[in-house]
Amino acid sequence: MNVSIFLITIFFSAVSVGAYIYLLTLMLEREQQLYFDDKTKTLFCDGKKVISVRDGSGNYRFIKYIFQHPDRVISVTELETYVFFGQNINIVKVLSNTHLPKEIITTFFAVNKDSLIFKNKAFLK
Asked: Where are the transmembrane segments (predicted)?
């Protein structure tokens, strides 16, 4: 009797560990990450090309800047000063001009009229 209880305990423990590992892999698969390759001027999401930008363009400077300053508030004034050389900007228009897909913007950016926060890792809902 003790051997059968021991074997049942081992079986259910193994099933529990397997279930936890399965759930962990599901969670990891749902994480997405953006990557900007400065050599090719290309933005990738999980290894898939999203957009390419021209060297020196406003889009290039914007994307390069946000990747240098992730996970913090970036104000309109900061973008106007360091990215757009004193030009007045609208953040929504700047994001629209990049031609990033809407799902990328909603997943990786927190945007309001005065600032944005870029997070290059995100979990899908």
From this structure: 6-28
Helix (H, G, I), strand (E, B), or coil: what is residue 87?
A: coil
Per-residue pLDDT, 26: 65
What does pTM read for this prediction? 0.74
Strand partners, 111: 116
Mean pLDDT over residues 4-26, rounded?
80
Taking each helix axis from N to C terminus, what angle separates 91-98 and 58-68, rounded to the nearest 10 degrees? Answer: 110
CA-based radius of gyration for the chain: 22
Using CA atoms of 102, 104, 106, 109 in order, give the dihedral in degrees to the nearest 10: -130
What is the CA angle 86-77-35, rounded to 5?
Answer: 95
